């Protein structure tokens, strides 16, 4: 559903519907 790519910021927090948090140059796919 979501593709979050935040390398340019270098640090990024993303919270999905499961309440999980990833950060720092992360590629996250839900």
Q: Count of helical segments?
A: 0
Taken in chain order, the helices and strands follow as: EEEE
Mean pLDDT: 51
Structure classification: mainly beta
> What is the strand tally?
4
Shape: flat
Rg from alpha-carbon coordinates:
9 Å
Distance between the termini: 5 Å
Oligomer, anyone? Answer: single chain
Low-confidence stretches: 6-12
Helix content: under 10%
**How are strands sequenced across the largest beta sheet?**
1-4
What does it look like?
This protein has 30 residues and is mainly β. The protein has strands at residues 3-5, 14-15, 21-22, 27-29. Strands 1-4 form a two-stranded antiparallel sheet. The chain has a two-stranded antiparallel ribbon with strand order 2-3. Residues 6-12 have low confidence and may be disordered.
Characteristic key phrases:
30 residues, 4 strands, mainly beta
Write the layout of secondary structure elements.
Elements: E1 3-5, E2 14-15, E3 21-22, E4 27-29
Antiparallel strand pairs: 1-4, 2-3
What's the short story on this structure?
The chain is mainly β and 30 residues long.
């Amino acid at each position: 559903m979501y593709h979050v790519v935040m390398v340019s910021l270098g640090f990024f927090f993303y919270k999905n519907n499961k309440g999980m948090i990833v950060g720092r140059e992360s590629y996250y796919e839900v």
